[in-house]
Amino acid sequence: MARYTGPVCRLCRRAGVRLYLKGDRCMTPKCEIEKRAYPPGEHTQTRMRRRVSAYGVQLTEKQKLRRIYGVLERQFRRYFAEAEHRSGITGETLLQLLERRLDNVVFRLGFASSRAQARQLVEHGHFAVNDRRTDVPSFLVKVGDSISAVEKSRSLPPLVQAVERAGGRRLPAWLQIEGDAMRGRVLAMPARAEIDTQVQEELVVEFYSR
């Protein structure tokens, strides 16, 4: 499957906010947003003074949300179409679907330092859902599902380091760490107030509803 492999700090600078694509590094002074808080490219500081159209604002917000969760355009459109056909507020339902992705849940539980690392760990078969090995990052978890690192992967250095560093990270109320540090459970569907993704999802809905 195609995947963006370029410098991710450029994506944060393009969005103008931290997208936390490099995990813990984004929380340090080494973050590119701290050093160069303007878009990449020549003469960008001049272009920043130009007025952005409503379409441009909506596009930026859509791209920001898509890149935070590491989803390509075609798959993102499918998520939006599914959210649009479900009952409830379309923008919130879209965020719910993205939050329920297995790679995001692994990241939220503190088993990976970034969503990109979580996606790689899942693809390599290091996690199981309800004790059944699952290597599909886009797998949607349900209430009551148990997510755990498979037994032989629990000593994997990236996983151990991520769990150690995640001690101070706030765990969303819809998730729970169980007995050992390598297992978590989905307690409920994520509510909008429990999703700390800094995005205006209503602008994404407006973008696709043009």
CATH architecture of the largest domain: Orthogonal Bundle
Number of domains: 2
Structural class: alpha+beta
Strand order of the largest sheet: 2-1-3-5-4
Low-pLDDT stretches are: none
In helices, the fraction of residues equals 40-55%
CATH superfamily of the largest domain: Ribosomal protein S4/S9, N-terminal domain
**Separation of termini?**
29 Å
- Could you say which overall geometry the principal axes of the C-alpha atoms support? globular
- Kindly provide the name of the CATH class of the largest domain: Mainly Alpha
Give the biggest beta sheet. Answer: 5 strands, antiparallel
Assembly annotation: single chain
Rg over CA atoms, rounded to whole Å, is: 18 Å
Return the string of H and E elements: HHHHHHHHEEEHEEH
- Number of DSSP-assigned strands: 5
Average pLDDT over all residues: 84
Q: What is the helix tally?
A: 10
* Beta-strand residue fraction: 5-15%
CATH topology of the largest domain: Ribosomal Protein S4 Delta 41, Chain A, domain 1
